[in-house]
Design a protein that fits this description.
By secondary structure, this protein is an alpha/beta fold. Helices cover 49% and strands 20% of the residues. It has helices at residues 2-7, 12-33, 35-38, 77-83, 86-101, 115-119, 123-134, 147-151, 154-166, 198-201, 207-222, 235-244, 260-272, and strands at residues 39-48, 54-65, 69-71, 108-112, 141-146, 170-176, 193-196, 226-229, 248-249, 258-259. It has an eight-stranded mixed β-barrel with strand order 1-2-4-5-6-7-8-9, surrounded by six helices. Helix 5 (86-101) runs parallel beside helix 7. The longest helix is centred in the N-terminal third of the chain and has 22 residues, at 12-33. It is globular, with a radius of gyration of 21 Å. The termini are far apart. The structure holds ligand C2E and calcium ion (3 copies). The site of one calcium ion has 4 residues, from strand 6. Keywords: Membrane, Transmembrane, Transmembrane helix.
Length: 273
């Protein structure tokens, strides 16, 4: 019984969890080896609120899983983080996005960066190399990072951030409002842009929600930051955001994320109209 009790914490359930985790790591490794077929970037247009023009796109990762079909990042980014594969995956994303961006000379391309990537010592050099290999101006690239990423290991991350910005790459604070800090922390983040989270855009039809978004916009503007609102689904939200002085919008109202070819088509349509 002694020997038994030593192992009793290892239940069949946990065994299954470990196995399924190992399978998802293995699948992800296979996807990276077969990236041309299994991985793909979709792009969601970002529009200027003043003149309505498309000014940028956000790259959003998709995975054509051989058994499970099309998967969004919610289904695998965490397992990429846990397995350590996020660095290779993130580099693939950046390289692909920078390559695609060359066909859209007027657009800024925004790429999501995970906390692990940002903490990695090689990150800044990797970004510099990917840009120079593709011949893309750093000013065309924006990196989106969450508050969690910016808070973690402050010293190194702060150094990486200032080096990236010195190169001319813009940095955006993603999902603003969902993290730990209060409004007044806006000025403490060394970023160029704030992305207002969808959960706030969703409630601008309430007095409290409207007041909150208005406060975020005015505080950010007072600190010289650009603002993009995410998850804009309704015309009323769009109008509200323009009225309070938000700079850019992104959301299903304008377009869902689409394949690169469709972005090119949208830009062509714009030229001929
Ligand atoms: P995010 O960076 O906040 O990206 C916006 C998410 O909102 C996307 O989900 C997008 O499809 C969705 N969205 C856009 N407009 C609307 C709208 O009007 N309404 C609603 N309800 N949703 C909208 P997606 O593509 O599933 O990505 C989920 C998250 O996965 C992203 O959230 C980002 O945090 C992460 N992610 C995506 N691509 C990458 C990547 O290449 N690397 C890393 N590290 N994370 C990524
Ligand atoms: Ca993002
Ligand atoms: Ca976001
Ligand atoms: Ca989000």
């Amino acid at each position: 019984t002694e020997g038994r009790s030593r192992y009793c914490f290892f239940t069949p359930d946990m065994d299954r969890d470990v196995r399924s985790r190992e399978k998802s790591y293995r699948d992800l490794r296979l996807a990276l080896a077969d990236c041309d077929r299994q991985l793909m970037l979709y792009y969601q247009p970002i529009h200027d609120l003043n003149d309505g023009r498309m000014v940028g796109v956000e790259a959003l990762l998709r995975w054509w899983h051989p058994e499970r079909g099309l998967m969004g990042p919610a289904g695998f980014i965490r397992s990429a983080e846990e397995s350590g594969l996020i660095e290779v995956l993130g580099e693939w994303v950046l390289r692909q996005a920078v390559r695609d961006a060359r066909q859209w000379p007027d657009l800024r391309v925004a790429v999501n960066v995970s906390p692990t990537q940002l903490r990695s010592r090689q990150f800044v050099d990797m970004v510099r190399q990917v840009l120079s290999e593709a011949g893309l101006a750093p000013q065309r690239l924006e990196l989106e990072m969450t508050e969690t990423a910016l808070m973690a290991a402050s010293g190194e991350v702060a150094r990486a951030l200032s080096e990236l910005r010195r190169m001319g790459i813009a940095c955006a604070l993603d999902d603003f409002g969902t993290g730990y800090s209060s409004l007044s922390h806006i000025r403490d983040f060394a970023v160029d842009r704030i992305k207002i989270d969808r959960s706030f855009v969703n409630v601008v039809d309430t007095d409290a929600g409207a007041a909150l978004v208005e406060a975020i916009v005015s505080l950010a503007r007072a600190n010289g930051l650009c603002l993009t609102a995410e998850g804009v689904e309704a015309q009323e939200q769009h109008e509200f955001l323009r009225r309070v002085g938000c700079h850019e919008v992104q959301g299903y109202l304008l377009s869902p994320p689409v394949p690169a070819s469709q972005i090119s088509r949208m830009l062509q349509g714009r030229e001929t109209h």
